[in-house]
TrEMBL record:
This is Alpha-galactosidase. Residues 30-286 form the Glycosyl hydrolase family 36 N-terminal domain. CDD domains: GH36. Keywords: Glycosidase, Hydrolase. The active site is at residues 479, 549. It comes from Pseudobutyrivibrio xylanivorans.
Amino acid sequence: MAIIFDESRKLFRLSTTNSEYQIKVDDIGLVIHNYYGRSTCDTDMSYQILSVDRGFSGNLFENRDNRGRSIDVLPQEFSGCGVGDYRISSVGVVAKNGSRSCDLRYKSHEIIDGKPEIPGLPSVRPYDDDVTTLVITLEDKVIGLEAQLFYSVFADKDVITRHTRFVNVSDKKIHLEKAASAMLDVQFGSWDEIHFAGRHCMERQMSRNKLTQDIKVISSKRGMSSHHENPFVILCDHGATETYGDCYGMMLMYSGNHKIEIEQDQAGSTRIVAGINEENFSWCLEASDAFDTPEAIMAYTPSGLEQLSHIYHNIIRENVCDRKYMEIKRPVLINNWEATYFDFTAEKIIDIAKTASELGVEMMVLDDGWFGKRDDDNSGLGDWFVNEKKLEGGLKRLSDEIGKLGMKFGLWFEPEMINEDSNLFREHPDWALVDPDRHPTMARNQMVLDMSNPKVEDYLFNCISKILDDANISYIKWDFNRSITNVYSKNLPNKKQGEVSHRFVLGTYSLLERLLNAYPNLMIEGCSGGGGRFDAGMLYYCPQIWCSDDTDAIERLEIQEGTSFGYPVSTVGSHVSASPNHQTGRSTPLATRGVVAMSGTFGYELDVTKMSEEEKAEVKEQIKTFNKYYWLIQKSDYYRLVNEEQAEVYKAWEFAAKDKSEALVNIVVKKSQANAKIKIIKLRGLEEDAMYLLEGTDNMMSGAALMYGGFAINIAMGDYPSAQLHFVRQ
């Protein structure tokens, strides 16, 4: 069984194929974290928790005569606040009497088959997996607060998901000021933390730092998960590599303000706490009210960063995203944004689609500028009706014409935003998030709609539904182009303003859910100025997310590699764009742009009508190549073929079939050099004693030779050369 409770030892054991998680209830009801790692063969790991009297670490009243037993140093499952644990807290409360203390003790537990849903929030789908859930209820009897800790074990996928439900069991109000989803205490080890920071047009750059006695915070208060700090962290051995070392992952399945805190304490133990960012957050729990936190996806492997990535890729591809996209081939698309920006007509879009269809492109996506008064980014957001002066005949005519070409049609929306210069704002200024008596902060000359207001959600659902009903639209690009400020809802009383940011996210999730239920064949691609909302919460609704507004292939090497640590290639929106690139001015060969964009859902974002005949022929071949390798790219194991010595010279990565039958290796040279070193690419994920043929050659090599000796390749001439190598088992 995945979850076993030993009554005699008060010990919970949660087991996956390659890991074990232990929880123990002590003699005064503290819920202790025993262990997370490889299987211990039924050993109670509490023997490692030694009694040590540490200065200025007080004792709970029951342990007043045992100075070595302090909650300030004990590993716990969920820390209270204000009662002697001076490390990061998992909860913050204000009781009716003003007290801010919370002492959580074991009350009960339940082990259930399957996995319950989280009201209003996305969570990892159990589908047909064998999933078991442990619910441990903690209580503070004094203030009447319960914290129900949910642990769902996906045994075959080496994943444990966690979230917390807070319940007010008193007859008085309780205000939550902090509500963590999960906490992990690791007693021993020399650790590095890895997180994925960045900025607009350079998201998810890997940052690795050795832990010392301090607190590391990875967070966003922008109203979205953000370009700047992704809600995913890794704790790994200081010496861990792609293929060696203990690694723990903590990924928050949430698209709003988040916070992951990592603290190494005076005794050398490490604590990770993940959840909603408590800045400007509060939640009023009336008597009998409950509050559910977002879900955290937790994983462990003893085999390095590569295996940790595979665990997350599998769970996201198979259980976070709608599983139907595992079997549906997504179309190669072309988006008009970098081809035309706002300057287009129906005829121009049809011309692009006609040329693209001749090259093998399967879907035309019309981006910003088709609605309301929208000839630039200063007006029109919120007015979701077609501008028929720009698009003569409307979207129906356009989608019909594109359909005649054998192509699908997709459309851009930015539902959560509003311009001051819009009919919607003139009619409903109270629907924007604006502080009373204060001018709003503007970004791109737009404001943010109050998604916590059900009337706003209904308006958007009705507008989008009308558009979808009037034309043949199979795809939406869902954008979100500014951070949130002035978080004040005119729809909520003053005492509930601390709830607005979270209710905003719940409103967005609700709208997405309603649309997908009403239009089950609709595919939505997430976007937020590129990768500003690239998180597991959005992936629940959107099987792919536009990875970055930076379409430069060489910049994308870094962006897509950082993304790969937690997210599978099947979720990465990636396009071939024009050269020189519109963001960097860099000129890159079309072949290299194709190689990089194929490490994603693949498409084009340029004016194909302006391409030469030679370029068009090359695009045709790129699309044929991508379609040939589609299932290998989308479903395989992904490997970062890291060569630290030459990391600044070239990048290489591999897609290896899970049955080891084939592998596709991609190489891009970032820095051509005179008299350059030969590049040795050591493949992974092959069958050692099988023979592999390099497609297009007579070269036959064993899997062992390719993995341990490597494949030598000499590409160094010109600007940013690239290669794709396909190895097939014979």
